[in-house]
Amino acid sequence: MTSYAQRQNKVLSFSDQGLNLAQIIEIVEEQTDLKFSYSSDRIPLNKDIDLKKSDYTISDLMDEIGDHLSLNYKIRNNKRILLLGKAKESSANTNVQLLSGLIVDELSGEPLYGATITNKNRDRGVSTNEIGFFRYSANSDEDSLVISYIGFNPVYVAVNELKSNTKKIFLRSNIEFEEVLIKTPNARKLETESNFNYYLNEAQLNEGFGFVGSDPLNTIMQLSGVHSGREGQKSIYVRGGSPDQNLMLMDGVPLYETSHVFGLSSIFNADAVKNVQVYKHAYPAKYGGRLSSIIDFRMNEGNAYERKSSIGFSPLSVHLNTEGPLVIGKTSYNLSARKSLVNAFYNEPIEKLLGFDDSDFSFYDVNLKLSHEIEEGNKLYFNFYRGRDQLEVFRSESQESALGKLDRQSFDNLNWGNNVFSLQWQNNVSEKVFSKIGFSVSDYTYNARSGFDFRFDDGDVVESNSLDISAVSRIIDLGINTEFQYFVSNKFDLSFGTGIFHHRYNPTLKQSNIYLDGNGQEFANEAPFISADEINAFIDTKWHLSDGTSIQAGLRFNSFYVREKNWLSLQPRLTVNQQVSKRTQFTLSATKMTQNVHLLVNPGIGLPTELWIPSTDRLPPEHAYQLALAYGGNLTDNLRFEIAGYVKEMSNVVEYISPFDLFHTFLNFSDIDIKFDTNRDWENFVQSGESNSKGVEFSLKKTNGPLYFDISYVYSKTDRVFEGLNDGRPFPFKYDRTHDLSITGSYFLSENVNIHAQWVLGTGDAYTLASQGSLNLEGEEVLSVPCQNDSPCRNNARLDTYHRLDVGIQATKKLRKKTVLTLDLSVFNAYNRKNTYYKYQFQNPVTGGYNLENVSLFPIMPYFSVNLDF
Amino acid sequence: MSILNFKSIIFFCLALLCFSCSKDIGENQSDFKSNIVLNSVFMSGEVMTVDLSSSRNIYDSNSKIEDITNATVEVTDNKSGATHSLYSIGQGKYESEMFRPEYGGSYTVHVDADGFQSVQSTSEIPYPAFIKEPEAYQGEFAEDGLRELFVNLEFYSESEEPQYYVWEIVNEDDKGSLDFNYTDILNNPVLLFSADSNTESVLADESFQTRVFLTNDGMNEGPIQTSFVTMTEPAVAFQFGDEVDPDADILIKVRVMTVSKDLYEYYKSMEVYRLRGTVNSSITQPVDIHSNVENGLGIFAGFAAQEIPIRLN
Question: In which residue ranges of chain A is CATH 2.60.40.1120 found?
């Protein structure tokens, strides 16, 4: 009451009495923390009001305005003033009018993608595209439109205001109001409404737990139907797919490697990411090139009106972000950079854990995005990313016995990274056509070097051997792509486009220097680049048949020309959305996807080498056919549910058939035999086969605070069939996860403090266990996989069930008006579950018996981060 | 959607969670069942010996590999239809002096033993390959005293079926036995420098040393041509330091086995197995040792063997 009374009695000063209503509102909002809400078509904002005095209390002022303009008003929740007026007379124009506009955030000037524009009855509407642009065909009886976007106050705009030219409409964030002071999860995991895919904004992307704190990819891993691979890694598996089957886009540019420090962190800096769309089914035809998911990251454009910065620190990295205008309202930038601190905090424990004498783990990345508005509806974007990882380990060992002295040394060095550059021009070409033209370059490089020295001195003779091997994998992509959005009507969306790409793959470049008993041999095997040219074209339509029914149909064409072989594919996409009740709807989708690149992951326990390889004349592209059905909606105002099922068949997926490691010295140091295959001609070591996946997914979310939760459960099965593996019979996919349960919750203790927790449980990975001993021709015991009762020989065993609890607390404190300190404290693996990272089998040299040992890498791990926004 | 439906969904999810389960197959495989392990490689004109033993669960300390001595072993000549019984001679070995397989013959072995699932396997004895007189010449002495020996080999076969060869280089100290025992790989290294594309070494390439080469003509028509160089033994034995005798004879032999495809795959997988060692983990694929024994393990295969001496003056 005190606060209310204070506001009511606060004296407002007006130096100028000749003001219109809009100016008065602005002055009131400047001098108080009161905000106005009104419909612009009902309130005469431009009408002058002759104020009789210079000082007013709020109530006096509102009474005078009310008398002058015949308006009523209400003050709500002590903070908001609602202006209630009469509707303007509708336009006499009886023709259909084509309107256009740009919806932007009032505070930052950034466009709002996916904002909805409807008539007052909300029975007809359109939504904005990536730059916040929309077109709306207004009927003669429609005099105003409602612009709404989650987390922002809706705005009413008169049709007349949009007639003449493209108008910029500003929406104001509603988080300033008391009733929605608790931000976050209100909008968390808001599915793109039509098809049960996902759209995550900046705040939601910061919620995910990880081994080293929040990470955008961690949030994605919590989505229903998405799960992670090995603990601590950022590999994503979507509906039975493998990690390479996810199209990771950074402002439209495909990326190949998206992790830092072996996946402890992703390359997506939360400071630099604006939003992400995740598609696990119902793929629009404009996307292609991967089989299982589309993960489309859009990077921050930067605030066009004011400069903002933040600096953060955690044991993993220090990060800096700055954004602001170069030309106010026109040109903005966003610059983010991270540098790892792994060396300072983790090197010593890692060296102790793995027995290294010396090690070096480090990474850095830089994101820069510039945007320039040439005119309204005409924008230019420039995006640059560079990231690099470095890993180096060194081990040595010395043994002395009666036979002599043995000295062994080994080193392994890995470094990898991406350079990404893109330029995009988005333009409202004509009354009905909006275009996007982009140019992009990406360069992914992976270097691996490994070697060892062996020296044995028996007193008389010194025997020394050494090996030094290096491998390079590199992919360079150049691309030009266009997309046109043609406005047909409010009920019919049409887009089409094309893209031309040139790829240069260098799957491996090897150099080995071998010295045996002093005899040196050098072998260089420079594999040539494989060039491939890709052309794609798409057409996508969305037809809103009625209020509750829509059909999205598209077709994508792809041509991949490599080694004089032209792989052609037509990929139809069809999605039907039907509203079942006021609160629920279902989506049925049938899609075909084609993938022209494959990822070979070293099957051995040596260095975790990965090799991206293109389809060639001998290795065909992969294809996936998916039929998916999803049903869901709101159970209550706070509870949202989703049930989805899918069947997916993939062909020409690849498996490494060689049991060799690329390098075999990393974890196998005790075995000094040279186990190196220099002729790693990957085409001879891979095999194509089929993969069949099916599953059901359930999720339940509470979307309003102070308690939020999100429960998702997936039951799925993925089998692979390869002619040359497992006698041609189906066997479980390595990452087949029969059960996958995730429970995430958060509770806001106050406006500034929340506690959060996440518990995950999943079936252990499948692997092949050779547990049967038998004699070979020479009478030696050899191990094999018991293949009995038609059980699969390959991947015949499972790792232990995986489960883990993470807890954390986040507190924010406003130090000054625009300075906010955020402190995160969390505990990864709170009950110290020793989840199996991998199992290894060894023979006891004394007893001759075999043991199977568990290796667990990630124990209970506290973590903190400090972030300062200013 | 009523609250009843909501409860139903929750109940369904929990029920599915509780009553669904995946079978965790670990090292304690209680359903392990021992198999018959049948090993037999045979030549034309020689007595066929079949070796029978049981397999074991390596994680069960009570499980042992044992000779199977009470089995019924019968071999059928698939061309004549005649069936021959083999008799136990102890230590799990079965033979019959009355039965000697022949070139080109196809034979099926059938084994019944109490407590085991019956096994059977079929194999042929291939005809030996025609090997052209090898061309060989010596290189210069290297600084370290080693002397290179270059050999060109050429294989022929009149058969229209793919032929499979396993060959290795041995020196004259070897006794010429054809047991193909695999000793240390570096004891007798050979560098293959010009290989037919169908010549495989498990170490796999033209740039490294190996001992056993596997060649097949399954993909190429015409003779298989291959060249190799050996730098250490036997050359080093004769050509070291002050004892170098440029006039000394050097004798090496190329042993060639013409084998069935199954035996070829077996040797290949054994080479890989040996190179891989016993290192095995959940993130590797263990080596699958090739077997052609139905319902069991082991190898049943015929082969033909030859030795080609290479003598240089």
Answer: 97-180
* In chain A, ranges of CATH 2.40.170.20 domains: 299-764+799-869
Sheet holding A72-76, edge to edge: A35-37, A80-84, A72-76
Give the CATH fold of the A2-84 domain: Phage tail protein beta-alpha-beta fold (3.55.50)
Question: In DSSP terms, which residues pair with B164 in a beta bridge?
Answer: B216, B259
Nearest C-alpha in A relative to B205? A679
Unique residue bearing structure tokens 């704190």: A213
- Contact yes or no for A771 and B279 at CB 8 A: no
Q: Cα–Cα distance between A215 and A828 in angstroms, integer?
A: 13
Burial class of residue A331, CB neighbours in 10 A (0-12, 13-18, 19+): middle
* Nearest residue to A852 via CA among A834, A865, A839: A839
Q: Where in chain A is the domain with CATH 3.55.50.30?
A: 2-84
Residue pLDDT, tens place only, A317-343: 888 999 998 888 889 999 999 888 877
DSSP symbols for A768-794: ----EEEE-TTS-EEEE----TT--ST
Q: Please judge whether B9 and A641 are an interchain contact, meaning their C-beta atoms are less than 8 angstroms apart.
A: yes
Stronger pLDDT, A193 or A538, i.e. the higher one: A538
> Per DSSP, what are the bridge partners of residue A744?
A710, A758
Q: Do the strands A35-37 and A80-84 form a parallel or antiparallel pair, or are they unpaired?
A: parallel
Query: Which pLDDT score is estimated for B149?
Result: 64
| Residue A320 vs residues A210, A219, A270, A478, B132: alpha-carbon distances, Å | 20, 21, 11, 30, 73
Measured between CB atoms, which of B6, B56, B284 is closest to A659?
A: B284
User: Angle A2-9/A58-69 helices, nearest 10 degrees?
Assistant: 60
Highest mean pLDDT among A566-570, B259-263, B265-269: A566-570
The rounded distance, in Å, linking the Cα atoms of A797 and B23 is 9
Do the beta carbons of residue B77 and residue B100 sit within 8 Å?
no
Which token pair is A329? 């309202």
CATH fold of A299-764+799-869, please?
Maltoporin; Chain A (2.40.170)
A213 band by pLDDT with thresholds 50, 70 and 90: low
CB contact under 8 A, B56 and A841: no
User: Per mean pLDDT, which range of A205-214, A558-567, A666-675 is the poorest?
Assistant: A666-675
Q: Is the pLDDT of residue A783 over 80?
A: yes
- How far is it, in rounded angstroms, from Cα A543 to Cα A491? 6
Would strands A530-544 and B106-112 be described as parallel, antiparallel, or unpaired?
unpaired
Contacts of A852 in chain B (CB under 8 A): 26-27, 59
Q: Which of A166-180, A388-402, A710-724 has the highest mean pLDDT?
A: A710-724
Confidence grade of residue A665 (pLDDT, cut at 50, 70, 90)? very low
How far apart CA A318 and CA A688 sit, in angstroms, is 43
Integer Rg of chain B from CA: 26
Per the prediction, chain A carries an average pLDDT of: 78
Chain A neighbors of B5, CB-CB under 8 A: 635
Which CATH code for domain A97-180?
2.60.40.1120
CA end-to-end span of chain A, whole Å?
33
Pull the structure tokens for residue B192: 């293959």
Residue A81, C-beta contacts closer than 8 angstroms, at least 6 positions apart: A28, A34, A35, A36, A37, A58, A62, A73, A74, A75
Residue of B56, B65, B299 lying closest to A777 (CB–CB):
B299
Decide: helix, strand or coil at residue A60.
helix
pLDDT range class, residue A502, cuts 50, 70, 90: very high
Q: How far is A776 from chain B (nearest CA, A)?
A: 6
- Least confident among A514-518, A695-699, A860-864, B109-113: A514-518
